[in-house]
Amino acid sequence: VMAGVDAVMNGRVDNVFCAVRPPGHHATRSGAMGFCFINNVAVGAAYARAAYGVGRIFILDWDVHHGNGTQEVFAADPETLTISLHQDGLFPWKSGGLEERGEGAGFGYAINVPLPAGSGNGAYVEAFDRVVAPALRAFRPELIWVASGFDASINDPLGRMIVTLAGYRAMTERLLELADEL
């Protein structure tokens, strides 16, 4: 993840995909959770700030589960906007509701989009267009991250979402366009 940050920040590439497992979005400041021991996005964002002085960071999480760890790490940080698109009520229990908006100076910088079970490409792309894109444009980040779990896939046996390759492609294309714009 840090090598990916270096590659982007030094201009060797425009973007990177880090194949890390598990992605870590459940790991909090104080411990592991949900098979996540290290919150790779949070570590990468901290590294980008420490090594390159990056200010505003945007983190999109489209894993089927709520990105509770990432939200908790940045809950009070007004320089980090987190958005989680996830299946409502799946895991962690009672986590990822609309009312969870951050805390203190970071209030309003955590956005949750809990989608009903059975949501597919249409729901995810609509959530992206109606929530993610306007928030991203308003925030104008210096660095964009995606906690890209693929368990909202129609092929995943545990989640109850029906996103296909076309849905992931549509969200990725939109995000890349926004990154170029911003």
How would you concisely characterize the structure shown here?
The protein is built from five helices and four strands.
Give your account of this protein's structure.
The chain has 182 residues and is an alpha/beta fold. It is 35% helix and 13% strand. The protein has five helices and four strands, in the order ααβαββαβα. It has a four-stranded parallel sheet, with helices on one face. The longest helix has 19 residues, at 121-139. The chain starts with a helix and ends with a helix. The model has no long low-confidence stretch (mean pLDDT 95).
Query: Strand pairing plus helix content: what structural class?
Result: alpha/beta
Distance between the termini: 22 Å
How many extended strands?
Answer: 4
Helix content: 25-40%
Strand content: 5-15%
Tally of DSSP helical segments: 5
Global geometry: globular
Order of helices and strands: HHEHEEHEH
Name the average pLDDT. Answer: 95
Strand order of the largest sheet: 3-2-1-4
For the sheet with most strands, the description reads:
4 strands, parallel
Low-confidence stretches: none
Task: Indicate the radius of gyration in whole angstroms.
Answer: 15 Å
List the SSEs and their pairings.
Blueprint: H1 2-9, H2 40-52, E1 57-61, H3 68-73, E2 80-87, E3 110-115, H4 121-139, E4 143-147, H5 165-181
